Every structure is written in structure tokens, then in C-alpha cells.
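Quick one:
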Amino acid sequence: MTQEQKRIAIAEAFGMTGWEEARALPDYFNDLNSMHELELILTDEEHLTFRKKLWDIAITLGHDDVWDRHFISPTAAQRAEALGKTLNLW
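Output:
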């Protein structure tokens, strides 16, 4: 699945309709503000799963001395990836 397809899947999962081109969608993989808005919509259960997915990403990316930084300060792309996995979009 391409990043553009993932952006479309995320947008559709949150009820965004009426867009004609992916360019009109928020750039979830590069915009922390867009990701924050979506995170606020998650239920408590979804947010718990989301945090677990972020933890998994941090563990795979981090080294012994910086793995926690990846969990505490994930990028927009890492958040978008975790969100897609949380909602079983990919």
C-alpha cells in the first residue's frame, strides 16, 4: 500500500468524503497537527491500542539509549502508521 493510499484509507476511516484528489487530504505522514486531531477522536480502547503500536514502532527503531525517545516523541509518519494499524486499515 502506498503512502497516498494510506492517506486515503485514514481519511475515509474518519468519515472524510467529497474530496476528488489525494492532494486535497491532510498530509498525515508529515503533519503532526493533523495526526493530533485524529488522535483526539480515538476511543479510550483505540488509544490504548494506538499507544501499543507506537511502542512496537519505537522498539524496532530505537537503540538501547534512545528507544524511549521514539515512543515519547514519534514523528507524524510513525503516528500515522500506528493509527492505520490500530484501525486495521493495513
